[in-house]
Amino acid sequence: MSQIHNKNELLKGINPSKVYIPTLIGLGVVVYMILTDHELSYKTLGAYISQASVFWLAMAVVALLVRDLFYIYRIRHLTRGQLSWTGSMYTIFLWEFSSAVSPSAVGGTAVASFLLLKEGISFGKSLAYVLVSAVLDNMFFILVGAVVITISFTGGYPQGSIFPTLSESTTAVEAVFFTSYTVITLYTILMAYGLFVKPEFIKWLFIKLTSFRWLKRFQHAAEEQGNELVIASAELKGIHIGYWIRAILSTLVVWVARYFIVNCLISAVNEISFSDHTFIFSRHVVLWVILLIGFTPGASGIAEIAFKAFFEPFSGTFTSITSIVWRIVTYYPYLILGVIFLPRWINRVFSNQNEEETVTSDPVNQ
Predict the structure, then answer these.
(1) Which of 5, 113, 293, 298 is in Cβ range 3.0-4.6 Å of 100 for a Cys bridge?
(2) How far apart are CA 109 and CA 126, in angstroms?
(3) Would you place residue 358 in the very low, low, confident or very high pLDDT band (cuts 50, 70, 90)?
């Protein structure tokens, strides 16, 4: 019965049928862009096809592959080799699929620990590795975000502010960015302190914060999360510095490669300087932090529209097409891979588990 229950819990988070919602939202936004963008036409599409640099489009694909390979490497490294290369590949693709069909604010981390658990990693270690992955990713956003904001506010970008102007003002974009940035920073500090310093204190804090009458209904969940943090923290004690250096470097490669995809796609339609490359990269950092609090599955629809606001000065008449290509390269492949890999993964892990139980229960093998 527990296997059936676990399988059902998994399917709730990464059911292939969930691809319809983000796909329909994305297609709806694409249709909206086509109808409202007067510069987008068959002529513009023909010009894009004939003028786009094959080299830079290929580089965008290379950057995507580098990003995925280092994601796979990182999860295998974090598990200290307990997760096989095949298991690492399944975990990353299904993790990405879960993120793609869930609101950005939710993400796929809730499913990730279950994926690792079914791959043979213990409960405590699964929690630890997933939380460490989240902390590493968030630390990248926090640190790089601080750098680009500092450069922008001190006038270091000749192109101007890294916040795009909406309705003749950047205030709205700044407000959303700093709200998201603050939430991510506070959450990451709490989780890092709990994982590496005093998990018992964070557990106490979670329970204390939910002791108020209007938050009382969340107290049980907060206590469970506190317990999980204590368990995960115990699994990370005494790990050598080399482990963390490789984890940090692989995280750096993952996100630089992911951000560089936009640089490649814009370079495919317009010659840009090194200074423009750094500015585009910086704007992508801001965009991604904003998308982290998106309320649609995988920020579908929001991302396409936001892309135009952030990068139109560099891609010009091809902005809408570049936005669509960006999502085709970085988002929709994970929906497809999820649909392909999920049934195979379920068959793989649950059939293996059934075989183990059969051997264990066989009197001859007792």
Answers:
(1) 298
(2) 11
(3) very low
- Number of separate domains in the chain: 1
Residue-range definition of the domain harbouring residue 132:
2-353
Find the Cα–Cα–Cα–Cα dihedral 153, 156, 162, 168, rounded to 10°.
70
Given pLDDT bands bounded at 50, 70 and 90, which one contains residue 88?
A: very high
Residue 51: burial class (beta carbons within 10 Å; 0-12, 13-18, 19+): exposed
Contact 346, 323 (CB under 8 A): no
In a domain, 359, yes or no: no
- The answer to whether residues 219 and 210 touch, using CB atoms and an 8 Å cutoff, is yes
Is residue 301 situated within a structural domain?
Answer: yes
Q: Which tokens hold the place of 201?
A: 């204190």
CA distance 126 to 118: 10
How far is residue 130's CA from residue 140's CA, in Å, rounded to a whole number? 16
Query: Is residue 358 one of the residues assigned to a domain?
Result: no
- pLDDT at residue 349 is higher than 70: yes
Residues 138-188: pLDDT tens digits?
999 999 999 999 998 888 888 888 888 766 556 778 888 899 899 899 989
Residue 3 has pLDDT above 70, yes or no: no
Does residue 166 come out as left (phi exceeding 0), alpha (psi in the -120 to 50 range) or beta? beta
Instruction: Give the 3-state secondary structure of residue 301.
Output: coil
pLDDT band at residue 10 under the 50/70/90 scheme: low
Strand partners, 297: 103
CA dihedral angle for residue 57, residue 328, residue 10, residue 193, rounded to 10 degrees = 60
Cα–Cα distance list, 47 to 18, 32, 44, 278 (Å): 35, 21, 5, 27
Among 72, 107, 113, 88, residue whose Cα is nearest residue 229? 113
The half-sphere exposure of 43 on its side-chain side, counting CA atoms within 13 A, is 3
Given pLDDT bands bounded at 50, 70 and 90, which one contains residue 137? very high
- Rounded to 10 degrees, the C-alpha dihedral 218/220/223/227 comes to -130
Q: Which two tokens stand for residue 76?
A: 């295998």
Q: What pLDDT was estimated at residue 106?
A: 60
Rounded distance, CA 66 to CA 59, Å?
A: 10
